[in-house]
Amino acid sequence: MKKKVAAALITMSMVMGLTAVPAMASEGTLKFCCLEYSESLDPANNVNSAWCNSRYGIGEALFRFDDTMTAQPQICDTYEVNDEHTEWVFHIRDGVTFSNGTEVTASAVVESFNYVLENNDQAVSYMSTESITADDEAGTVTIVTTEPYADLTGILAYPYFVVLDIAESADLTTAPIATGPYVVQEYVPTQYMILTANENYWNGEVPYSELQIMFMTDSTTKYNALINGDVDLVENITTSTDLEALEADTDNYYVSVASGVRIGYCHVNVEGVLGNDTLRKAVMMALDDDTMCDVTTGGMYTAGFSVLPSCLDYGYDELTDATPYDVDAAIALLDEAGIVDTDGDGYRELDGEKISLNYVTYESRNLQDFCAAIQTQLAAIGIEVVPNITDYDTGLALAAAGEFDLNGVNELAVPCGDPQSFLNIWYSSSEKNYGNYSNEEYDALYEELINTFDTDARKEIIQEMQQILIDDAAVLVHGYYNSSMASSTSITGAEIATADYYWITTDIQPAE
């Protein structure tokens, strides 16, 4: 190993207080209300199942992101990497146990990683490995990758790689055994979950003896549950007037907001009718993202045109919007290409067929509001949009099967602290390339990015990749989301993380 970072990580561990400390007595109940993004806690099921495992305080990973999206040590305390960035050795922190009291060994970590990688193709797209081996005597996990990674610690902080006791978990869907502060006791999907304090928690006191989670879809219903005292804490109030009311009542409520690194956008399926370049560009020119972000969603989003948010340091201000909002220009573009309404039904045809776009999305973070606005705005230029608003899991399955023209989603642009894995979505060979986009220049730049470790050089490549996607009208970008957490002043420490993989943490405690 040529590069050693053990000393630095030990220092960070001391600063963050990450030492194995026995759990202390807990009392009281924390009541939390949220949208249920998945009916499973098994990280191999899909990405939201992994996130739920992490969000509810059940599972933890080797690393954890701080608010600058830098991976900090958690279950791992030190690591080493070779000059080629293909061999990584991670030391497992002494004294960490699963909720059943079993020690977290290197072998247990390897079994957990292998389970996810063998059962989830998307997880493989984050980390492609040649081998993962354990040395229990040394307490180390060695990962040899098939390609170099600029920073594997960020990938291992991603919730796909929460560390579970695979051997002892009777049901990973409803009750995984992990290392977090809370343990599932009862789970009724779509209704509620009851958790209790992890008596074997390795990192200090668990503030509440019980955690009750109630699942609610409607934002105003969540708001009413908070103001009626039915819950102490809610995630993502998406009705702007409700959020403003909570922010104004500082005596009774606290609202935490993290802005910027989530993007609301649509996958564009270029194997369908939107494979026509003229139609695709006209669609994007006809959409008023400023109004949708400022008015339709009540300011929940900041409008933008690139896949990486303007707040990130990847050259946003130097990019050029190739399809700026211009309805007249969009109409002219379609007319000149002969994409017109020939039968007088109000909708244009392409190759003799009425243009009717299948828009798949789910009810979360105002995505359904974007869908309704787009339906109205595109109807004005003679293009029909047929909404298919479903639950997240169904939407993901439809996207993976390519059964859409537009697939509206809200995702983190830097899920691993770096945009490489997000930009993989438009790499032609990617499992996540639901829209079937392909551009040789983009692919070449992505492959160059994989093998580039210099920060400035990576930024230049990433800027070029963004401009290609913009020029090709490969992605329908709305804007960048402001996540929130609202709580009663009866509790403290309820902050929304920049990477909202972390909702329930031991920082949330009764107010004194």
Detailed description of the structure:
The chain has 512 residues and is α+β, with helices and mostly antiparallel strands. Helix content is 28%, strand content 24%. The protein has 15 helices and 22 strands. Strands 2, 9, 10, 11, 12, 13, 14, 17, 18, 19 and 20 form an eleven-stranded mixed beta sheet that branches. The radius of gyration is 23 Å and the shape is globular. Residues 1-25 have low confidence and may be disordered.
Give the secondary structure arrangement, pairings included.
Elements: E1 3-4, H1 6-16, E2 29-34, H2 47-55, E3 63-65, E4 71-73, E5 76-81, E6 87-92, H3 106-119, H4 121-126, E7 129-135, E8 140-145, H5 152-156, E9 182-188, E10 192-197, E11 210-215, H6 219-227, E12 233-235, H7 240-248, E13 253-268, H8 277-285, H9 289-296, E14 301-303, H10 327-336, E15 349-350, E16 353-354, E17 356-362, H11 367-379, E18 384-390, H12 392-400, E19 406-412, H13 420-423, H14 440-450, H15 455-471, E20 475-488, E21 491-492, E22 509-510
Parallel strand pairs: 2-11, 2-12, 17-18, 17-19
Antiparallel strand pairs: 1-5, 3-4, 5-6, 6-8, 7-8, 9-10, 10-11, 12-20, 13-19, 13-20, 14-20, 15-16, 21-22
Helix pairs in contact: 8-10, 14-15
Features:
alpha+beta; 11-stranded mixed β-sheet; 5-stranded antiparallel β-sheet; 28% helix; disordered N terminus
